[in-house]
Amino acid sequence: MSDETEEARGRLAEVLRARRESLKRLRDKGIEPFALRFTKGADAAELRRDFERLAPGEEAGIRTAVAGRIMLIRRHGKLSFITLRDTTGDIQLYLSEEHLGEAYGSVDLLDLGDIIGATGEVVRTKRGELSVKVEGLTLLTKALRPLPEKWHGLRDPEARLRQRYLEFATNLESRAVVMARARVLNAFRDVLAERGYLEVETPILQKTHGGALAKPFVTHHNALDMQLYLRIAPELYLKRLLVAGFERVFEIGRDFRNEGIDRDHNPEFTMLEAYAAYATYEDMMELAEALIPAAAMSVRGSLRFTYQAREVDLTPPWRRASLADVVSDAVGETVDHRDEERLRAVAKRLEVGVDHSWGPGKILLEIFEKRVEHDVWSPTFVKDFPREVSPLARPHRSADGLTEQFDLIVCGMELGPAYSELTDPDEQRARFMDQQRLRRTGDEEAHPLDEEFLVALEHGMPPAGGIGLGVDRLLKILVDVPTLREVILFPHLRPESGRS
Q1: Residue 388 in 3-state DSSP?
Q2: What is the edge-to-edge ordering of all strands in the sheet holding 205-206?
């Protein structure tokens, strides 16, 4: 342990002792340090909006009640100023012995991080700061640990993510992520509600991990004595609802995939999935061109902005191009899903590792994901995927060996797939059996055989289109951060050294 670390721990221990002493003194004075409730009258943003024209030195003649966390205390004898922070921002409290009387002495027992409530008149100080001239002060919660030094936020990136609540408490800019997520989800729901989609909830614990190609988390249900999986996608249950007669459904929820963590991947993430009877993947393109611009407007107020110092334009319509054409343009020679020899040669030239058991469609997709996708910046529907990598999509209406699937790529990231859905139960069974052959060769992400879903399809599912959109990746673009964990409120991190 370094001398600097030892010194920091010593300082923290001293602060903790002082806080405990303050706690005891409060209780000795008969002050409850952890209150039951407090009735707020307004928040900081409302006060700034409602009294923006109040002149310096002017009193509004209106009383209010505010509450929040103490971010700064300035004591000047018989006057004190407190910066109070609530969800919407900061407001200043103006405290004086003249107005508070003996209660003014309790200000000395307050610390940064304490949560307080205050009542008083709205004024603007002579220096122009909107304030509440405090007539009543209530300690609501005594903070027994200090805020990060100087309350600018945590400087250590790892500590910042481990104690995300402290970052949100101390750094107003970091709160934009929380607000943006709420706005995006509200925008999605508004667009879908306008189009007649019904929001539903489907199981997170599933007997079969279907709906995507991914490695699942496994758990055990003690009462039923059976193995279950955290869902990797809600797709197969949403399709059951189409069978049931619900023509337009969607779900916003958490999915789980037991995979690596990097800039664009997290094992737990939020997805929107929507399905519409009597639709195709072209209809899902149009839906995406409504959903994402609505989300962008709710967060950025424009469809044109910068992400990582590059311009982004989300104005529809967006480019449509086949997977083979996008790869051909990028690698400088014509390739398609049938020419395995050429695809293996291209993969070798580009140093893309491919397995000997893979067919040409899988190789084509691997080349795209490893060498092409990152350079697709403008919104693009990369469409018409090989059958072998698309077990749930309908066969292409005019191209043998392909399916009606697209992946939406924006800023070099896949935001989500969409299909003209496969409704033929016999064809679906054949696709599942193809996936079982891949599983036997060691492909852990191959789709399992889901007999219950096949039975549902045999009852008849209407022709349909479906789409999935990754909320976290979209947020990453809209709030302009480089890694996915910046937009996940409490991201998964490796255990700290020395801790289990």
Answers
A1: helix
A2: 205-206, 226-230, 218-221
- Give the single-character DSSP code of 488: S
CA distance 125 to 44: 16
CB atoms within 10 A of CB 329: 12
Which amino acid is located at 97 in the chain? E
- Selection from 18, 37, 11, 17 nearest residue 108 by Cα: 18
Tell me which H or E stretch contains 284: helix 281-300
Alpha-carbon distance of 239 to 198, in angstroms, equals 13
Q: Which two tokens stand for residue 53?
A: 């024209």
Nearest to 214 by CA among 399, 472, 469, 391: 391
Beta-bridge mates of residue 271 = 253, 470
Which pTM was predicted? 0.91
Distance, CA of 281 to CA of 285 (rounded, Å)? 6
Encoding tokens for residue 165? 């609540």
Q: What is the pLDDT of residues 369-425, one digit of tens each?
A: 999 999 999 999 999 999 999 999 999 999 999 999 999 999 999 999 999 999 999
Q: Which of 460, 463, 483, 464 is nearest to 473 (CA)?
A: 483
Contact, 229 vs 217, CB < 8 A?
yes
What does R_g of the chain's alpha carbons equal in angstroms? 29
Count other Cβ atoms within 10 Å, centred on residue 412. Answer: 16
Which amino acid, 68? G
Cβ-based neighbours of 304, under 8 Å, separated by 6 or more: 311, 312, 313, 314, 315
Note whether 177 and 479 are within 8 A (CB).
yes
17's tokens: 């002792």
Structure tokens, 475 = 């947020």
Q: What are phi and psi of 131, to 5 degrees?
A: -145, 165
For the record, the structure tokens of 62 come out as 């209106």
Q: Which residue has the tokens 């469609």?
A: 361
DSSP H/E element including 268:
strand 268-277
The answer, yes or no, to whether the previous bond of 317 is cis (omega within 30 of 0) is yes
Burial class (CB in 10 A: 0-12, 13-18, 19+), 205: exposed
Whether residue 499 is predicted with pLDDT greater than 60 in this model: the reply is: no
Q: What domains are there in the chain, each with its CATH number? A: 3-147 (2.40.50.140), 174-318+378-486 (3.30.930.10)
